Amino acid sequence: MAKAQGQNFLKVGRSGRRIQEFKQFRVHDDACGMKVGTDALLLGSWAGTTSVEAGQSVQHILDIGTGSGVLALMLAQRFPQAEIDAVELEHDAAQQASENAALSPFGERIQVHQRAIQGWSKKADLIVCNPPFFRDHPKSQDRKRNLARHDDTLPLRVLFSTSSACLHGQGSFDLVFPEDRAQEVEEEALRHGFILHAKVQLRATPDHEVIRSLWSWRKAETSGMISETWDLEAQQGQGKWSEAVAARLAPFVG
Predict the structure, then answer these.
(1) pLDDT band, very low/low/confident/very high, at 15 (cuts 50, 70, 90)
(2) What's the whole-number average pLDDT of the chain?
(3) Element (DSSP H or E) covering residue 103
(4) Domains of the chain by range and CATH?
């Protein structure tokens, strides 16, 4: 635990390095519109938790909008028995995700598909997504970045309808999304028959407002919804993860 507590931030996001080093794999993201970021790391460290706690086997995983493939790689490490389908619309990102997977110890279990998610029919025990979530925001001149950040090609209704059709009965659909669109997420989930099993609210420090949330949706009934709040930093300006987040990421970095 002490090692995790002292762990520094990864240099992630738009201005970060184009190669991210993890304990069991590395991720190149220079060809991707969306670089490796904190949202993906936290989702990758947490997704599938409700399935594991419910005693469900995770044999097949679907990663919608895989980008560089970092989520698929993290889940391949966490679920060594699982086969993973990683779907990515943008050609260059799909190619880079395929290369990242092939260079990892998990390449034989990760299949990257360069295509839209619409029409996907293969069932999964766990569906994960770090989706584009900007709507009606100004766009840049970068086509790849627009595709990765704006929800024109993957609105919430498509995300939930696809997940509803492809999820096994006892599986979970886990995603990260901005808290200011929480009502839309909940309405769309309920419209497609999902029940919220767990939600983790994310904030920079205890003094900041919640800006993102991790959601775990299932079709099965629940005895009660699990709710947590994670602070990325215990205190602003330290440049280190909080204890809770560092412990989550310790299997991957540090």
Answers:
(1) very low
(2) 85
(3) none
(4) 21-176+239-249 (3.40.50.150)
